[in-house]
Specification:
The structure is a single chain. The chain is mostly helical and 193 residues long. The chain has eight helices and no strands. It is elongated, with a radius of gyration of 22 Å. It starts with a helix and ends with a helix.
Length: 193
């Protein structure tokens, strides 16, 4: 078992541009990792967790491309005892989450849930509560700094983090940060108000 871990660490070092300046050898290391160790393990993980309309292979390819770009940009840090495959599985998990978000249908904030001819006496109350919630959301969004507001508006419209990053010309990490902090601030506003 220890030999496997050592060979994994050696293979991962070959993937890193900081440790291996030869791009051809890095490409061979990627092929070796994908074919012998990582590819089948990540695909198995995706098959057990993917409950979206996207195919397992598409999610795998998307995760591998993202992992490759992150490694080539020097954003991956090798950690003792944590296999590289776990890093790629984490990326795959995020790709599955993005696929779920893309498949959701979001109703515009202006869409009303009540129609006057509705026979249900509770419909008016639900419609009123819905409008109050929409109004509170609009008010809360207006209190956020412009970048956070834009990220949340695009996120609520159904755009993925990657799409938002591309539209706003910022990194996905910054989009995630704006989304997280914006949602936290909205939550704080609703607790106070």
């Amino acid at each position: 078992m220890m030999v496997q871990l050592d060979s994994d660490e050696a293979l991962v070092k070959r993937l890193l541009p900081s440790a291996n300046p030869d791009p051809q050898d890095r490409a061979h290391a990627w092929a070796e990792w994908h074919g012998e160790r990582g590819g089948p393990a990540v695909l198995k993980f995706i098959r057990t967790t993917n409950n979206t309309a996207e195919t397992d292979e598409d999610i795998l390819q998307d995760a591998l491309v993202t992992a490759y770009v992150e490694v080539e940009r020097g954003r991956y840090e090798q950690r003792a005892g944590v296999p590289f495959t776990a890093y790629v599985k984490g990326i795959a998990r995020n790709k599955i989450r993005e696929a779920r978000r893309r498949s959701r249908r979001w109703a515009p904030l202006e869409e009303a849930n009540y129609h006057p001819d509705d026979a249900n006496p509770r419909a008016l109350e639900r419609a009123l509560e819905g409008r109050e919630a929409q109004s509170a959301l609009r008010s809360g969004l207006q209190q956020l700094p412009a970048p956070r507001r834009q990220v949340l508006q695009r996120y609520l419209a159904g755009d993925s983090l990657a799409e938002i990053a591309g539209q706003m010309a910022i990194t996905e990490a910054l989009v995630r940060q704006h989304k997280h902090r914006g949602l936290r601030r909205l939550q704080q506003l609703s607790l106070l108000g």
